Amino acid sequence: MSSVKLFLQDPVIVRDFLRTRTPYETAKTALFFYFVITQSLKFCRHVQARGITDSLRDSWTWTYKQVLLLALKVPSVQKDVQQQLNKARLDIEGKLVPQGVDVSRHLVLPDEGKSMEWIIAEMEKMDGELGTRADWKHGKLSGAVYHGGDDLSRIIVAAFERYTVSNPLHPDVFPAIRKMEAEIVSMCLRMYNNPDGAGTMTSGGTESIVMAIKTYRDWAREVKGITEPEMIVPATAHAAFDKGAAYMKVKVHLIPVDPVTRKANIKRVRRAINRNTILLVGSAVNFPDGNQDDIVVLGELAAKHNIGLHVDCCLGSFIVPFLEKAGLSDGEDGGAKYKLSPFDFRVRGVTSISCDTHKYGFAPKGSSVIMYRDAALRRHQYYITPYWTGGVYASPSLSGSRPGALIAGTWAAMQYMGSDGYLKSCREIVSCARTIANTITNSIPELYVLGSPPASVVAFGSKSPEVNVHEVGDAMSKKGWHLNALTGPAAVHIACTRLTLPVVDTFIADLKDSVQQAKLAPSGKGTMVALYGLGQSSPVGPDMVSEVATMFLDTLYKA
């Protein structure tokens, strides 16, 4: 090593060495050194972000996984695995696809158009064929349906009817839709304390997040010359960040969270920042356990390094901006402390926020808003080409044509609810969630609440070796509840909505019964136990789960 160092440091030796080589050999040598240096830098940045211990663990897991994947190619093993996957496929199809000779299937266009009466009757028939697996009006759901009431539904339908054919791609034809979209963005910006900011509507939280990643990628390339972008994301951030990074070819450094507070490990975030970092991510609140990252500290880091900080408020949406006014942002309830730290554009370093209007804003599904600190940053979200033979093409987000009816429905919902309606909704929903959290903490000794969730989501794990929390989730499923299973750690969560309010006592009673059932008579056969047990069984477990998930997606398109 010392002789190589001496060789590189002595200009005379280097000059004489290069003189004895042909241009082709010199180019090859230069290319070789360029490859070694760039790959070494990538390796160093990776180890710096992950840490030596985690890097070694990742390498061991990867090696072990490759060995197991080779073992799975043994014909006898492969046959057994395929049999299990085929069984899983049949189970999925049995749950999703209606079976029987009496099932009507519409696989080709009818020769003649059908009447409205026939269409409505056929829809009712399909509902009957598929059965009512989850009557959402009964409220036994985690999130999923964010219902603002029957009166609001009628208002949204009226907006749909009025603007059915509208398309914001043509603002000259549909000026009212353009105006409503601009006003929706303006209302959200003011709600998040940035009246002079900028934003656009999107089709949902995932698109808002993907657009943010695209924006920072293009911004960093133009302003800082970064061609190999990286982003730093807490482990509890939404999977849409991984999805967006995959689409936009941005490397992700996944940061662990504190096991008690459930906040991103700031020390690890700080260590992961390098010259290629374009974006930090924080949640207020996160989807898995409903906790909040330390946005203030993340903002300080973002400002110091001149990089973006995106705050994901897709789930917090129309809850977290109203917590302070509702008197619920800082205090003690039932012996537990709940505190919402600053999270919006008032925090130095926050450069973008995503907010789902179709969650606690009670707007129709398929609507969200992505907001930026200023219009200059938003410009990097746009796609514009002046070279198309069809004319200049410009769009603010992924879609070209968009349903103006959704924009009208969103605008109508926000006008109907108003600040007072959202404040009342926030107070009721958060009080409901805290009732559940406090009951778990004070009355169900086998369980514990993850972190100190300040808003509408409560996640609970097991602190008893006798209770598998996924068994609890499966037992709740048998009682008609549709909850979300989590991993890292194993847990179950409920996102409370207005539909949860009248059934919160039922939830608590069912949860207590389910804990005892999981403790005394675990079945070991429920969906949560089987699926998430498989995912954690070995390094290839996630691959098997991915295969099952692929089957699920395939089944969605089986007519």
From TrEMBL:
UniProt keyword list: Endoplasmic reticulum, Lipid metabolism, Lyase, Membrane, Pyridoxal phosphate, Sphingolipid metabolism, Transferase, Transmembrane, Transmembrane helix
Enzyme class, UniProt record, top EC level: lyase
Cofactor(s) for this UniProt protein: pyridoxal 5'-phosphate
Main localization, broad class: endoplasmic reticulum
Compartmental location: Endoplasmic reticulum membrane
Residues bearing the modification N6-(pyridoxal phosphate)lysine: 359
GO biological process assignments: carboxylic acid metabolic process; sphingolipid catabolic process
GO molecular function, one term: sphinganine-1-phosphate aldolase activity
InterPro entries per record: GrpII_AminoAcid_Decarb, PyrdxlP-dep_de-COase, PyrdxlP-dep_Trfase, PyrdxlP-dep_Trfase_major, PyrdxlP-dep_Trfase_small
Pfam families: Pyridoxal_deC
Entry annotated with the keyword Flavoprotein: no
UniProt entry tagged with the keyword Transmembrane: yes
Pathway(s) of this molecule: Sphingolipid metabolism; Lipid metabolism; sphingolipid metabolism
Topology within the bilayer: Single-pass membrane protein
Superkingdom assignment: Eukaryota
E.C. number: 4.1.2.27
GO-annotated cellular components: endoplasmic reticulum membrane
The family this protein is said to belong to: Belongs to the group II decarboxylase family. Sphingosine-1-phosphate lyase subfamily.
Entry protein name: sphinganine-1-phosphate aldolase
